[in-house]
Amino acid sequence: MRSMSDEPARWTTATVYPDMWADPDDDPRNNNGGDSPEGEAATLRDGLRDYRLTLRMKCEGLDAEQLARRSVPPSTMSLLGLVRHLAEVERDWRNWISDGEPLSKLYGVKDADFHGAVAEQAVVEAAFADLEREQAALDAELAEHTDLGARVGKDGIAIRELMVHRIDEYARHCGHADLLRECVDGRVGQ
């Protein structure tokens, strides 16, 4: 158990705005040349892309132990657990839009995404590969639906509703990632 004196010092790499994660010119989320996306679908995809990048940024530069480090007991939450959880959720969202048999869970039983987030490099690599694969698979399936109001799957979810739900899920977990990263090494920022 850490004492208060063991807390990492807060820091950021930003020099322009000291409360930011990175300087605006170095932030990969600002690579659209300042242009806003055109239309609702592009706006939703852009927002999702930014949150996905934020999660990756919060994990950058950490080793397997740091990524697997849990927050405060009894929580099982860790940055690695969040990556695994979001891979599982992306896979499950494919079930929402399918009329077929559901895809199996990536990690097994409930909460296995967090419980299995152990400090092993192979687990880290697999988690990021799983996340990338599941994101790409769902993105490809959703790209076939140009009408955001189209209702799909057994429960007739609107594509728009699923897109907003995805952004909401990533936004919530990026907030967790902010706190987790600060606990690991003191790095703070947007």
From TrEMBL:
This is DinB family protein. It comes from Streptomyces zaomyceticus. InterPro entries: DinB/YfiT-like, MST-like. Transmembrane segments: none annotated. Residues 1-42 are annotated as: Disordered. Coiled coil: none annotated. It comes from the Bacteria.
